[in-house]
Specification:
heterodimer, A: 534 residues, mainly alpha, two-stranded antiparallel sheet, 22 helices, 2 strands, globular, B: 626 residues
């Protein structure tokens, strides 16, 4: 540990610590003997919980008036190639960092992996470290390394602790993502070598984004490569089919992390390494991305509706939800992008909760088939109530978390992508359809004897759900602490788009109020003569 | 006292939270009493706020209270705030008043139900949501209440969820309402992008900036929303099914309060509504009124008659709005809340007394055995049938007058509806309370009809008084008697409130015609169902009993091509989209097999390789950095 002491003189490199703490935990657990039951998970909770504490500290100390990167640390790493250890956090990454911080200790503490706790915990901590790294990296090379690192523990978690078809699902997940990564790597190296100026090579994100040294066509091709890699991760239809398999086969803890954190690497990547790095290409290809986003909303919802497996249904609902985030991102308005950032957190909370609940149901009944379940609410009313709240949050009921994000995305997108938004808003109808229909079949109706013996939620399980329900209510009622930290950075990003492209954000509408209660000047327009009073 | 506004929704919210925590321990009847106290407290708070508002000068009767910024982002400003003005307070007075009575009634009605306290959890949450809907100072808070009442409606319709039909009806209500919500959302977006605000107090003064095209588009989108919530054609289908819920729910949510939120929303947005849009509103309202009245004629279930009747009466309210007669619409909302809640609660009392029998063909002659229920039900009947001086006469008459001035065709539709209303309601009263008893105290299904406990008949009595006298709040002919109109007038400062132009002679003449129509309906029903002088063979055609098969047609489309289409998407997803992926994988695998014989464990090695590489990178990074 002595090697860190020297640099901690001026200010503590807290973000570096954030990445290292779970990594150290993973290493520590890896060298502990297997014969110490319970200790591994406790240590896991301790280390990931420590990271959670740090992430919350970052959020509280975060300057709400600043749009730039905060808590920055830059250390030269491979100077000849222009690679450095550059970490920083802004309003776009802050809440993903907090989400990553909080969700791992909750998952580790509350969800039983059913076997080999030592390796499971170590992989989980490595996954947390990698996710932090990906969200905090401001150096392209560093980002790529972390973006790749997270694949390994997730692959291991699915193939080691998953269900019957886990090998197939894990392989599919891995190959799919690697395919995108390969494209991204090539694009990244091309970008860096073409952008090299007098100062030599640099992998620094901020430098590259500000320099904008590429020709229009080159930048567009490179953007497409990046966007493709991220689109797989999101995932957008039609490159989404790894997701239902991965989700269904992953252990509950893995599904929660996959939905809450890993999918966000895709949408986060689109913002950070799409819009920020390639503003012109982003504007150029926006219609394409908005279209695939809206297709994902409708398509994911339709396919979700007719799923027979409850977990697959939730997985397809993710495709629909992530479509909203893509739409908001490429709406290029402050409301739309901020809504997308907020919705990344919301989706993690709601879908994470649903995956845990489906996992609990599976533990009880050894099935997730919707038509093998019925009338569970009669046997387990509290379980059903928690499911109902999570479902309504996912459906976007105002007052719960899902609404604020969805609303901001839609209202922000309406300004610039009117017709797409009109279609996307219909996805809200479908969301109610697939979830309520599934709920009706599983929880309502006449229970069989097997259904009546479904155990009620236990105290420990209720404790696990409590932070999720609390987050749903808090974020639904008072999203302001999040929004006020998100907005300045998003605003700066939109300004960045305006500076480097011919895009202009819609102007604020200000109407001079008419105090005349008279109706003669109402609805002034092309056909004033028609506007006769009664 | 205006500052007390936050208390109005806060009390039922507190009741809800308390019951969530302690409801089970409180049990019956304490949980019910606590919820009723919360509702009653909310009513008292509303009255105090009302008194405070009356203390203000006529045109400055507008008070806003902002608790905090809910969703603030850039130029978008969404506050968690309340707007107290004549419109919202009028709505709140009858919502909390009727709501409290129905809470009280439910203590008796839900007696013995194993989920007694859960019922009151939902009821208090509903009241809270409904009050947010009317008191919200902007469209988004209204939407919060709008969705909240929808969710409560869903939970309460499927309250007896082991019954398949109840579960299906709950889901159907929510999903159908979501179609309306789509209109609400897109309408809000269009309004905000055009005039830059979602706050009511700013919408009025800024509405002049809407072109007539945009204004019409906004109006029609909100009409979609209102048609969903207020069960208008073509989205009415969920309301008749919603009768699966406990009867107090039908009275409170599906008659008196929630279903009128569409009317409230359109009246609230009156500065935005254009003439073209209003014509559409009027046509939809008139069509719904007639359609539902025809359907009510042939129903056998005591609650289904009332359900179709509610759809029909809501149609009247839309007809009023469409004619620009906003005050008449609100007037009818209130009187309808009184008499329809009364009728529903009365039907609940009958169902209760008849041991859960709902088929009117198995009732009859209950007048003597349930005197209070019968007496109050008869009051409700006379009110809805438009017999003067009961409240329904006055509000319906105003709507018919407005329709007359908009277009005589609309008036004729309204008049026929009035005749049908008088007929089907008389049929119901005669079938249930008069004639011979079609049930038996012996035999296979012995029934012992009895009067309900005081918790149930007191609300009936109070509502009966309101149903008689409610018309007094807005009496025609003498200007000073138009109390409601004068009170509400400031709300229409930026819109076009229709002022009646007909001569007194026309007004009286139209009123006489509508009274005569009502009497014809009653007489015909008496001849057929009471005196049995007219053959009833052809009076209940199957076509009308099935509400012209509209719902059946929907079900056929959704369950047939709709479901098939969805299945096709899923098959496409797993066969074509995923099939292509797996196919590509197989090709790669085959090529790999050709190049490299060692194929087993291929992925595992690869993964381990990456893992080691990753770890090596981490170590490299640790030594090189920081």
């Amino acid at each position: 540990m002595t090697m860190f002491a020297s640099s901690a003189t001026s200010s503590m490199p807290i973000l570096t610590w954030l990445i290292l703490l779970p990594a150290v935990g993973a290493a520590l657990i890896a060298i502990l003997p297997k014969s110490m039951p319970g200790l591994h998970r406790q240590l896991g909770v301790l280390f990931s919980g420590g990271a959670a504490g740090l992430s919350i500290y970052v959020a509280t100390q975060f300057d709400t008036h600043s749009s730039g990167f905060q808590f920055e640390t830059i250390q030269e790493w491979i100077p000849t190639l222009g690679i450095s250890w550059h970490v920083g956090v802004d309003g776009i990454s802050l809440w993903l960092v907090v989400l990553t911080g909080l969700i791992f200790p909750i998952v580790l503490a509350g969800i039983d992996p059913h076997g080999d706790e030592k390796s499971y915990t170590a992989w989980m901590l490595m996954l947390q470290a990698g996710s932090f790294g990906a969200f905090l990296a401001l150096d392209l090379f560093m980002f790529f390394v972390f973006f790749e690192i997270v694949l390994v523990p997730m692959y291991m978690l699915i193939s080691g602790w998953g269900y019957a078809d886990r090998k197939y699902a894990a392989t599919k997940f891995f190959l799919y993502t690697m395919f995108g990564s390969a494209l991204m790597l090539v694009a990244m190296l091309t970008l860096v070598s073409l952008s090299a100026g007098d100062g030599g090579l640099t992998f620094d994100l901020v430098a590259l984004a500000e320099r904008q040294a590429l020709g229009v066509n080159t930048a567009r091709w490179l953007f497409l490569a990046f966007a493709f890699a991220f689109a797989i991760k999101v995932p957008v239809a039609p490159i989404h089919t790894w997701l239902p398999d991965a989700h269904t086969q992953a252990p509950t803890g893995g599904s929660v992390i996959l939905a809450a954190v890993m999918l966000k690497l895709g949408t986060y990547g689109l913002l950070r390494f799409g819009l920020y790095l390639f503003p012109e290409a982003s504007v150029h290809f926006a219609p394409l991305l908005v279209t695939v986003g809206v297709i994902g909303i409708i398509y994911g919802a339709i396919v979700a509706t007719v799923q027979g497996d409850l977990k697959r249904l939730v997985a397809y609902s993710s495709v629909a939800h992530m479509g909203f985030i893509v739409l908001g991102t490429f709406a290029f308005t402050t409301q739309g992008i901020s809504g997308s950032v907020l919705q990344m957190v919301n989706h993690g909370v709601s879908t994470g909760a649903l995956f845990i609940l489906v996992g609990m149901l599976y533990e009880r009944r050894k099935t997730r088939a919707i038509d093998e379940l019925s009338g569970i609410q009669k046997a387990a009313p509290i379980f059903a109530a928690v499911f109902t709240v999570s479902m309504l949050s996912s459906v976007g009921l105002p007052g719960l978390n899902g609404f604020a994000g969805e609303f901001l995305i839609l209202i922000g997108s309406f300004e610039t992508r009117r017709w797409w938004t009109v279609v996307a808003a219909a996805g809200v109808i479908l969301a109610a359809l697939y979830l309520l229909w599934a709920y009706q079949r599983v929880f309502h109706g006449e229970p069989t004897d097997a259904d009546l013996e479904t155990p009620e939620m236990r105290g420990s399980e209720a404790l696990l759900m409590l932070p999720f329900i609390a987050a749903m209510v808090f974020l639904g009622v008072y999203p302001q602490p999040l929004l006020e930290r998100i907005e300045p950075s998003v605003d700066a990003l939109v300004t960045h788009l305006e500076e480097h492209t011919d895009y202009e954000r819609p102007e604020d509408v200000v109407i001079v109020p008419s105090d005349e209660p008279d109706s003669s000047d109402e609805h002034v327009d092309e056909s004033e003569s028609e506007e006769e009073d009664h | 006292m205006l500052e007390l506004i936050w208390l109005v929704p806060a009390l039922p919210l507190a009741g809800f939270l308390t019951l969530v925590a302690f409801g089970r321990r409180l049990g019956e009847p304490l949980a019910g009493w606590l919820a009723t106290a919360a509702a009653g407290g909310s009513f008292i708070a509303t009255v105090l706020v009302f008194i405070g508002l009356l203390g203000e000068d006529g045109h400055s009767r507008q008070f806003q209270q902002v608790l905090f910024d809910w969703i603030p982002l850039g130029s978008l400003k969404v506050e968690a705030g309340f707007l107290v003005d004549p419109l919202s307070i009028t709505m709140a007075l009858f919502i909390t008043g009727v709501g409290s009575l129905i809470h009280l009634y439910s203590i008796g009605y839900m007696h013995g139900d194993e989920k007694f306290s859960k019922f009151f959890i939902y009821l208090n949450l509903f009241l809270f949501s409904m009050l947010m809907l009317v008191f919200g100072n902007n469209l988004i808070i209204t939407f919060l209440g709008w969705e909240g009442v929808g969710a409560c409606s869903y939970l309460l319709i499927s309250f007896w969820h082991t019954r398949e039909s109840a579960a299906v009806a709950g889901k159907k209500a929510f999903v159908t309402n979501r179609v309306g919500d789509w209109g609400f959302m897109v309408g809000t977006f269009l309004l905000w992008t055009t005039i830059g605000t979602v706050t009511y107090a700013e919408i009025g003064p800024a509405a002049h900036a809407l072109t007539s095209t945009t204004g019409t588009a906004v109006s029609l989108l909100f009409l979609v929303a209102a048609a969903g919530k207020s069960a208008q054609l073509p989205l009415y289908v969920w309301l008749p099914d919603a009768m699966e819920g406990p009867t107090p729910v039908s009275a409170l949510i599906h008659a008196a309060t929630m279903v009128t939120s569409g009317v409230y929303l359109l009246v609230r947005l009156n500065p935005v509504l254009t003439d073209d849009a209003l014509t559409v509103v009027a046509i939809i309202g008139a069509a719904t009124a007639l359609f539902a009245a025809l359907s009510a004629v042939a129903q056998h279930d005591i609650k289904k008659v009332l359900a179709y009747s509610t759809v029909s009466q809501l149609g009247y309210m839309f007809l009023a709005i469409g004619s620009g007669a906003y005050v008449a619409a609100i007037f009818h909302v209130i009187t309808h809340a009184f008499f329809k809640a009364l009728l529903f609660l009365g039907s609940g009392s009958v169902i209760h007394g008849m041991h859960d029998e709902q088929d009117m063909r198995k009732m009859g002659a209950l007048r003597a055995l349930m005197p209070i229920t019968a007496g109050t039900f008869i009051v409700g009947w006379l009110a809805i049938a438009g017999v003067p001086p009961f409240s329904g006469f006055w509000s319906k008459d105003e709507i018919l007058l407005a329709a007359w001035e908009k277009s005589p065709v609309l008036w004729v539709v309204g008049l026929v509806t009035a005749l049908l209303t008088a007929y089907y309601m008389s049929r119901q009263v005669f079938l249930v309370f008069f004639g011979e008893a079609r049930w038996s105290e012996e035999g296979d299904h012995p029934v012992h009809p009895h009067e309900s406990p005081w918790t149930m008949w007191v609300p009936l009595a109070v509502l009966a008084v309101a149903a008689v006298a409610g018309g007094a709040m807005n009496l025609p002919l003498v200007a000073d008697w138009l109390v409601l109109e004068h009170f509400l007038e400031p709300v229409f400062e930026h819109g076009h409130l229709h002022h009646f132009t007909s001569s007194t002679g026309t007004k009286v003449g139209l009123a006489v015609v509508s009274v005569v129509a009502g009497l014809i309906g009653i007489s015909f029903a008496a001849g057929a169902w009471l005196l049995r002088k007219i053959s009833t063979n052809k009076l209940e055609p199957e076509f009308l009993e099935n509400a012209m098969y509209v719902d059946a047609a929907y079900a056929k489309v959704v369950g047939g091509p709709g479901q098939k289409g969805f299945d096709m998407f899923a098959a496409f997803d797993s066969n074509v989209v995923d099939g292509a992926v797996n196919g590509a994988g197989r090709v790669v695998q085959m090529v790999g097999r050709f190049i490299q014989p060692a194929q087993s464990g291929y992925m595992r090695q690869y993964a381990i390789g990456i893992a080691l590489g990753g770890l090596a990178l981490v170590i490299w990074l640790l030594t090189g950095v920081v």
